[in-house]
Amino acid sequence: MRRSHKTLLMCGWALAAGGVWLALVWQGYTTLGGAAAVCALCVMGLAGGPALRVMDRWRGGAAEPLAGEGPGSSGSGAWVRGSAGRTAPPRPASAEGSLVDRLIAQGRVALLLRPQIAASLTEEELWRAQQALDEAMAVVPQGPVLLRPRCADQLDEETAAKAQRLLGVEGYFLDRYCVTNRQYWEFVADGGYEQMSLWDEAIWPAVLGFVDRTGHPGPRFWSHGMYPPGKEDHPVVGISWYEACAYARWVGKRLPTDPEWVKAGVWPVLAEGSWPVQRRFPWGDALDRRRANLWGSGFHGTIPVQALPEGASVSGIHQLIGNVWEWTSTPFGVWEPPGRRIETDLPLKSIRGGAFDTYFDGQAHCQFQSGESPLARKHNIGFRCALGFCDIVHVPPGAAEDGAEEDASARHQVAPYTAREEAD
Amino acid sequence: MRGYGTVELDSHRLAAYTVPYPCYICGGGNNFDAELCRHCHAPMALAQQAAQQNVQPQMLAALGPSGAGKTVYLGMLTDMLSRQDEPLQVLARGAFSIQLQQQTLGALARCEFPQKTPTEPDRWHWVHCQVLRPRHRPIELIMPDLAGEALLEEVDHPRTFPVIRAFLSKCAGAMILIDAPRAQAGESDEDFQTMKLLSYLCELESDPRRGWPTRPLAMVFTKADQCEDCFDDPAAFARRHTPGLVQQCQQRLRRHRFFAVGVAGACGFRHETHGRMHVPLRIEPRGIVEPFLWLVDQLRASC
Fold this sequence. Notes:
heterodimer, A: about 425 residues, alpha+beta, paralog of FGE (formylglycine-generating enzyme), three-stranded antiparallel beta sheet, 10 strands, B: seven-stranded mixed beta sheet
């Protein structure tokens, strides 16, 4: 009896030791695996985004649709509270499913719809990507837009008329909502700050300084690489123009130009023989603080991007006015008449739309342009992305059933509004 | 030939001229219909309103070197508090009290800064207002927009501007505005000028129970939108960039606190016929109400 007790005790000790050993080995593998994954990401990033090149190889995996997840969703599942009282991070969308599913879940459908990639997708995958794009982005049709100088209201009629410019804008897609903290977190979690190919080479030294309050890579007002609790659907703020550009590249899009952004808001209507008739605000000509989050609207801070749907534009783009200023790709001040050009110490980038703390009505309409240093990481500047019609293939309705295999990119031969126009 | 006689005063108006009306700021005698005090150039409307409404307004000063942003701050503050439901509300007393708000906000809405406050006291804007707060008794306040150059002149050469001296003697509290970007750039002038102001105040009324050492002082870093870390921790910013001022505050003042405010989101320069003009690129007030709220709380505590 005593001997059997001893044997049992020894067996117990042996089992416990074995368990500890297994745990250590597992931990080691996990750590090694994690390190290997990070290394792979870095190498992929430095090599110029070979993720796209290896897509075909990865497509061998089963393509299971993510039921009930929109394009803006991270596919994160439930949220839990961490022991430190902070909200635990959601699982990155890159953690599960095939590459196509993961890209759709991360909101990177634009990559899938590139002509080079789309050719190797199945009809069903292409169709799903197109659906996701339609949900996330709105169409802004081709046409002219009248751009006025930033303080046109203060100019006399003749000067204002001389200063305004009629520009042609190619058709493009614009995000329905500003990029949210949750969406941006996908970029951070995917090692966006380490993929140097996403960043302009000139800005590489500054990328190391793009950290949050705790020194982790990420927006300025985050902590430990995580956005503030409860703000997952708020627009991401505290990001520089370069961070916005890097994110846009990561999702296969770009920042909108100034004329593109204005066109989405003013929604020009061409009347024969006259200038286009344009709105002052996306919803009409009069400011209504119940439709936009501005100073005096009563919110005193950012609000979720889906809020105030009554302030959406004709094509369903939300919060073009208010909540946060939005970075555009255009330099600040290019539309000013020669006598009213504004000089700054650094060349600024244009921001549009006003924010939750914009005080004056006259500084929160579609034509008002302000500027900010591209390195500034302000509490009230966010962004949304754009995508030219010509940059992606178009899947016509019913294509999935028809099984048509023609190169859809051939249907869009128009050149988007690009830096070419800005240089003019 | 000279004749003597008695002329009967047949009008009460003539009689009124014989009665001196004291200025609310300096206490000097004036005629009842004087617009400005003949001694200190403060508006006599302040005294008339105080007499008519039977109130004794307290005085609050916004001080600081030239270009620190006193006019923009005061104009913005009064406009914000008179426009929406903030913790405090301000009700202007008399049309002259809205002048500062009108001029400042008009300029800012045009994306320009208001003109520099002239040095002559008769051209300063005075704000007499009632501060309303739920569940509290209203407070009557007088807040003038003093010229920074005049302030420094008075500090360097006391009694040059009697109005400043008289006003600061009677003030219940003050905000000292400091240009944050200049302080961050290491321009020691900002530190020295603020220290001089503080020193002047403490020597002007040095009574340990009722003088400036016991009166509340809000040290306000302005234009903080250009140095964002100032918003995160104004006191730490002060320790890093204005160490002399911090030392003076600790030694001389019992009630002080550091704040950061910003009005323009970004600024640039525009060439005008009269030279290079500093212009705001947008207006997004930040931290404006907090220093004033703290001061009002301190005034209530003193009462």
